[in-house]
């Protein structure tokens, strides 16, 4: 039996344990659960350990009532079951589809990207002004963390190839919205670190295996977004 098969087979028993705990008016020990589900106590312990580790079940010792060791009991962790399936891809698709109907969808997406780019880039001290090479390195570091696999054409690059897209399937369908968001991310990051370069344009799927970001000298290297916010508060 493979690990995947075993994990699939474990789910019904763990679900049964959770349901038994939720149906009980009082905390239950291993022996009680084994009797209720008609399975071996060691099997109950194995699955309870996994449920406790996942944060779905709480384990504690009961207050002593006499001689002997206090009994270990279990209760379901309060709140919604966090072991369910996630549909973040569907959520992103719904939001992108809605945004794409806006007359200014690209501009709105770029503005959102700028805000997040200023937040995601590594902070630098206010007196420090990076050169073009350092700014390129900081930008590629952020894009690497985000999963774009960037390749700059030199230390002070004029272009950066993005070999991967962490939102590839969505970008293929909603490039007119998602690609401006990516461009905004990079523009916001460069503005935040007061870089002497700016992201002028992003060519989606310019090559069979890459998008290309074009860079050029920037006109202004004033305060970054976060610093302007701090100055105004």
Number of domains: 2
Describe the largest sheet.
4 strands, antiparallel
Strand content: 15-25%
- The H-and-E topology, N to C, reads as HHHEEHHHEEHHEEH
Task: Give a count of the beta strands, DSSP E runs of length 2 or more.
Answer: 6
Average pLDDT reading: 87
Radius of gyration: 27 Å
Number of helices: 9
By helix and strand content, what is the structural category?
alpha+beta
What is the topology, as strand order, of the major beta sheet?
Answer: 3-4-6-5
Please identify, by name, the CATH architecture of the largest domain: 2-Layer Sandwich
User: How widely separated are the two ends?
Assistant: 61 Å
Q: Low-confidence stretches at least 5 residues in length (pLDDT < 50)?
A: 1-8, 227-233
Shape: elongated
The CATH topology of the largest domain is: Muramoyl-pentapeptide Carboxypeptidase, domain 2
CATH class of the largest domain: Alpha Beta
Which percent bin holds the helix content? 40-55%
Describe this structure in words.
The structure is a single chain. The chain is α+β, with helices and mostly antiparallel strands and 233 residues long. The protein has 2 domains: 3-76, Winged helix-like DNA-binding domain superfamily/Winged helix DNA-binding domain (Arc Repressor Mutant, subunit A); 103-232, Muramoyl-pentapeptide Carboxypeptidase, domain 2 (2-Layer Sandwich), CATH 3.30.1380. It has helices spanning 3-23, 30-37, 41-53, 88-100, 105-120, 132-146, 168-173, 175-192, 225-232, and strands spanning 57-61, 72-76, 150-152, 159-162, 197-207, 210-217. The strands form 2 sheets. Strands 3-4-6-5 form a 4-stranded antiparallel beta sheet. A two-stranded antiparallel sheet has the order 1-2. Strand 3 (150-152) and strand 4 form a beta hairpin. The longest helix is centred in the first third of the chain and has 21 residues, at 3-23.
């Amino acid at each position: 039996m493979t690990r995947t098969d075993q994990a699939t087979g474990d789910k019904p028993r763990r679900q049964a344990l959770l349901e038994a705990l939720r149906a009980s008016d009082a905390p239950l020990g291993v022996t009680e659960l084994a009797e209720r589900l008609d399975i071996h106590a060691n099997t109950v312990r194995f699955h309870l350990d996994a449920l406790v580790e996942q944060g779905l079940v709480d384990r504690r010792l009961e207050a002593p009532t006499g001689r002997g060791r206090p009994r270990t009991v279990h209760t379901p962790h309060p709140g919604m079951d966090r072991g369910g399936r996630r549909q973040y891809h569907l959520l992103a698709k719904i939001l992108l589809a809605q945004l794409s109907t806006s007359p200014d969808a690209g501009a709105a997406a770029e503005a959102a990207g700028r805000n997040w780019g200023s937040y995601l880039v590594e902070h630098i001290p206010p007196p420090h002004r990076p050169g073009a090479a350092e700014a390129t390195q900081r930008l590629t570091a952020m894009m690497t963390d985000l999963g774009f696999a960037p390749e700059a054409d030199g230390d002070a690059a004029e272009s950066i190839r993005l070999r991967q897209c962490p939102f590839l399937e969505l970008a293929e369908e909603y490039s007119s919205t998602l690609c401006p968001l990516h461009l905004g991310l990079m523009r916001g990051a460069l503005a935040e670190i007061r870089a002497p370069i700016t992201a002028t344009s992003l060519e989606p799927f310019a090559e069979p295996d890459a998008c290309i970001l074009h860079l050029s000298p920037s006109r202004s290297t004033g305060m970054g977004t976060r610093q302007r916010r701090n100055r105004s508060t």
